[in-house]
Request: fold
Amino acid sequence: MNTPIRSGSGMLTPVRNMGRALVFLFKAILRMRATRLQVAETLRQLYFAGVRSLVIIVTCGFFVGLVLTLQSYDALARFGAADATSTLLALSLFRELGPVLTAILFAGRAGTSITAEIGLMRATEQLDALDLMAIDPMERIVQPRLIAGLIAVPALVVVFNVMALLGGVVYAVFLMGTDPIVFWGNIQNAVELGRDFGHGMGKSVVFGLVASWLAVYFGWTAKPTGEGVALATTQTVIATAIVVLFLDFVMSALML
Amino acid sequence: MTSSPDNTAAVQLRDITVRLGGRTVLENLSLDIPRGKVTAVMGPSGAGKTTVLRLITRQIRPDAGSVQVGDVKVERLKGRELGRFRRNLGVLLQNGALFTDLTCFDNVALPLREHTQLPEALIRRLVLIKLQTVGLRGAAEMYPRELSGGMNRRVAMARAMALDPDIMLYDEPFAGLDPISLGVSLRLIREINHAQQSTSIVITHDVEEVAQLADFCHIIANRKLIASGPPAELHDSEHPLVRQFMRGEPDGPVAFHYPAGDLAEQMLAGRTQ
Reply:
């Protein structure tokens, strides 16, 4: 007799969690305040989440551009269309790969550290201490990290794209001898600022919000134990990757 | 707002019942905390001492009964009223709960920067005075990870009294301290209470320290208040539970063994339940 109830509640759990996460996000947005201390804390978080993610973004961006150019040059050259490599590279980067890969890398580098930090703050009563000092932890801890992610991810997407293009230049121009005028000219002709670059940047803002929201949410709700914090950081990466890939498909379909 | 029926009590708990996770933690408990004194709330582990602290700070609400601090009915507070109320409380949590990414100076300055419009130069002086009081002015620019556990708690004490609160609450302030740190903490709690003319509530189970520190003492056990009075008076009590607790006797109303079935039967069955 109990089986249907159990399976029903099991199915409801993800829906309930999603609802809780949305309520959490709305609360954080509704309680936003722009004080001098808040701005200072946001800038500090921007440094931790954004500047400190540069190494991985720069490295991954360069190699993604390099390998993407290598594979597409090889395939296109079979049809005598090697000159179109830069078009393929730029469009796939600006529309899809730049925002998606940057958001997933951001979740792995900055998201996990945000989750672990907030989870440990919960475990060591730092969030309780804020509450007891009449300082809203939502305002002091959650908001600066949310805003920092929202700003950092689009900026990191630009860096990722630039580095990937640089990787493309290294392979196509320096190694395969493509004329640089043809390489850059094709990109200029094929890429529309609003439709391609603009849509990609729009996605990056959404992904930035998702990555930082899930990171703070899983930190906030982490069980105050070592195991709980470890689980929360894992959940951050998995949930961010799934939500980003799902939203990317939905947004791509809507933007086409 | 209602008027306090007893002007000598800073905190009044009346007919409090608290249930947490399906378990009754406090049942029909009433106690008064006298104004301007150091009062210890004692009891065996798990007796509900920290629950009393969480009721006074309104981290939790009672299922029944009322908590009154001064003229304020605490359980009714929310939003900005709760914020205003908490600015008048200084709470030292069990492990200090300092912010690890801030220096000791910034930890103590935090409530001043958040809740006052004082210029930075004045905040600096106030913070240095607070740190001087706890003997750690020299550690102002150090991070909590660079200090010992006892020192961390002293910085947390300086932070708790940064806004000169009317009521100071200490949750297990002596747990895990070496004899020197313990002596320093005892002296500080007394001095802060005297200098700020505040009311101090110490949640603890350290009988020896309470005898040196507290003016008044409440003992909670089995979800109820079982005794109140000056420490010396309680030490001589003939109440079996009070005597067991104050003298640290292994046998008495509080059993050494957690309730379990017959040992022989369980051993022969070869299972744990």
About this structure: The two ends of chain A are 49 Å apart (CA to CA). Chain A is about 85% helix and 0% strand. The CA atoms of residues 61 and 97 of chain A lie 10 Å apart.
